[in-house]
Amino acid sequence: MSFVNQNEVFDILEKLLSSVFEKFSNKKIINKVFPRIPYEQSMLKYGTDKPDLRNPLVILDVSEIFKREDVKFEIFKKLISKGNIVRSIVTKQTAEKPRSFFDGIDKWARSEGASGLAYFSFEEIDGKISGKGAIGKLFSEDSLKEIMKITGAEVGDSIFFACSSQSEVERILSLARTKIAEDLHLINKDEFAFCWIVDYPMYEVDEKTKKITFSHNPFSMPQGDIENLDFDNPLNIKAFQYDIVCNGIELSSGAIRNHKPDLMYKLFSVAGYSKEEVDTEFSGMINAFSYGAPPHGGIAPGIDRIIMLLADEKNIREVTMFPMNQNAQDLMMNAPSSVKENQLKDLNIKTIKKD
After folding, report:
1. How confident is the model at residue 324 (pLDDT cuts 50, 70, 90)?
2. Rounded-to-10 torsion of CA 280, 230, 258, 167
3. Domain limits at 155?
4. What are phi and psi of 231, to 5 degrees?
């Protein structure tokens, strides 16, 4: 759509998807005005930018607790001193669960490639707060009260911890959040919970090259005063990029697009592209925009993913007409098929067989 802003795109999509899901499903839509969650907040609270909001569990950072002198959990203290973080998940009134429940979560985390999840429960004995479990005794009463204050935990609740790099903690606790909620039957399967993930960073640092690169979509419009963007601190620049998510499934990504060639050159230069490289690699778009283009934006939710949710299927292959196998082959259409020699000649292409 031309001459639209982000809010106008959201308004149209919310009405469209609400009507579609109401017509083809008996499940309840929790919010017809979908919550808007900034990307950074989503990664902190849910460990993912595809959160399932039917799940009441949230992730909270408790790294500072492990810097206290009255906390004797030396393994985590040592990891934090090397730049790692600690985040946690609180489960309500689970202190009386059998130990097998907690050990099962810890064992599951190890099977997912993590070093496990530490845990204990909050209990009150003779008016004093204490930690029930193997590591509970490593925390003083004051430190336990501080954890309760930060996380909203109460006596009778339990807490799980993960300590590692930020990306690894986000990964394992996102999975753990789902695993624990399913084990405790916390997710209402008769609801649809939509949300928008907004305010994606324009750039990120590539973990391998350590260079600045685009994080989501290089053709999006940056937020803020376009004439005075802080290119000296590019990691602070947010973009008008957004994802629409339902029950933990990303339906689509969208954006308000950058329609200004001069601005596009500047944004690409931050990621290491010269003007000549942009002209060569993205010539079609640059050429088109050089003649003048209106401000524009939009989004295109995937029909297959919508049907997967409406049909209550967990695998998109179940609702795809001709699903490909794990080798990316369409067995119904026998594709990809062998190319005939005359077809290669028509295109001046030749193939080289591997030994």
Report:
1. confident
2. 90
3. 55-187
4. -70, -10
